[in-house]
Structures are given as C-alpha cells and as structure tokens.
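> call design_seq(struct)
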C-alpha cells in the first residue's frame, strides 16, 4: 500500500527513540494539516517519502521480552495518574544511582521525573494551587538535577535552572549555594560571592561550608593571577 501519512508517524517515532515528546512541534489538527504546516519534517528521507510515496515494508525485530509488571513506561506514554504515581519511584531510583556514583544516569532519572510533573503542570493555570503544588514537587528534583550537572561541569545549565528557581522562591538556600558554586567555576567572582553571602544570610549554620567554598575560590584566583603574570610577563616590553 502507498502510505501517504507515514512520514509524520515516522517523525514521531524518531522523536520517541531520541527521548523527545512525539508531538513536539505539532499543533492540534489533522495529519494532513500538519503536513501542510511544515516545510520540512526535519529528516531528508522522510521529506522525500512525503513527496514521492512508495510501498513500504516493515521489518520488526524483537529486542527483549519482559515479565508482566516489570516494564517501565516512558513518561510520554503514561496517563496523568501514572505520571503522578511514577514520580516518587523515579526520584528514588535517581537517588540510588547518585549514591552509586552514576551521576549521568541519576541526572536522566531526575529529568524523567521533572518531565512527568512539567507535563501535568502545563495543563494547569499558572499561579493556581494545583500549579504551585506541582512546582513545589519539581523544585527538589531540579536541584538534584543541578547537583548532577555541577559534577559533570555543565555549569551554565546549573546557572539557568537555579536562577529560574530563585525567580520564584527567593529564600531557596540550596539554589543560591549551587548557583554560587557554578558562578565560581566560570569565574563570575562577584556573583559567586553575592550568592554565598545570601546563603549565610538565610542559614548562618552553613558558614563552615560557605567558608570552604570561598577559600577555594580565593586560592583558584591567586593561582590564576600567578599564571596570568607568567603568561604576559614581558609582553609590553618587547
């Protein structure tokens, strides 16, 4: 059979394989309208198939067999109720992976849990009690995700996420602390010092931890200044 609408289906399947939302970039309309909406599907072979429909043969390969009850659905395939039920379990799995030192894998788990809650939150009016309740569940997961990203040295992502938290929750000590560490790592010295000062103002009991971070930053600054002096020594006398 000539499968005219298959390119759109294939695009969604490829999104799923990449861990993306299968409906990304689509609007709520029929498939034919979707095809007219998009100049390109993002894949040259699908664009060609769209222009010149061909008979298709599908080969299915069985990769594994899982026992009943052992299969864990991807967030995009869950119902709203299943997403709410899955979040605590995914959170726990992320914590266990982090304790084992599997930071990247832990970050992926936290991301999945955040995705479940974000999908539910999008259906609520911002600022309503239900929206706020979901946001308060997202925040600790996002902070755990940022901790993983700190260890992976992905500092600018940490800056973005912590700033988004602090835009809503100005008293979140953990967000200030993680953002301060990220600022320090990318040599935003004044910003780092300001964030660490905010940590102390909100929770003075953290002074030993903050002092350690500030001493580390000062040591790195001295080392950097010494390296710069050596690098540029004599450059203006030539």
């Amino acid at each position: 059979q000539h499968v005219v609408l298959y390119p759109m289906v294939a695009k969604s399947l490829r999104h799923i394989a990449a861990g993306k939302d299968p409906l990304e970039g689509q609007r709520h309309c029929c498939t034919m309208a979707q095809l007219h909406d998009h100049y390109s599907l993002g894949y040259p072979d699908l664009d060609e198939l769209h222009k010149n429909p061909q008979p298709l043969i599908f080969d299915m390969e069985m990769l594994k067999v899982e026992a009943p009850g052992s299969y864990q659905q991807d967030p995009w395939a869950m119902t709203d109720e299943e997403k709410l039920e899955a979040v605590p379990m995914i959170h726990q799995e992320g914590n266990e992976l982090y304790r084992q030192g599997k930071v990247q894998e832990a970050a992926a788990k936290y991301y999945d849990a955040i995705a479940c809650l974000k999908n539910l939150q999008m259906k609520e009016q911002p600022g309503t009690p239900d929206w706020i309740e979901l946001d308060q569940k997202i925040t600790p997961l996002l902070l755990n995700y940022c901790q993983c990203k700190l260890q992976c040295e992905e500092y600018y992502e940490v800056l973005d996420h912590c700033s988004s938290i602090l835009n809503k929750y100005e008293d979140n000590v953990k967000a200030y602390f993680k953002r301060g560490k990220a600022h320090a790592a990318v040599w935003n010295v004044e910003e780092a010092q300001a964030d660490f000062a905010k940590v102390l103002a909100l929770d003075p009991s953290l002074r030993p931890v903050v002092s350690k971070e500030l001493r580390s930053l000062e040591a790195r600054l001295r080392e950097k200044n010494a390296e710069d002096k050596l690098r540029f020594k004599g450059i203006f006398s030539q």
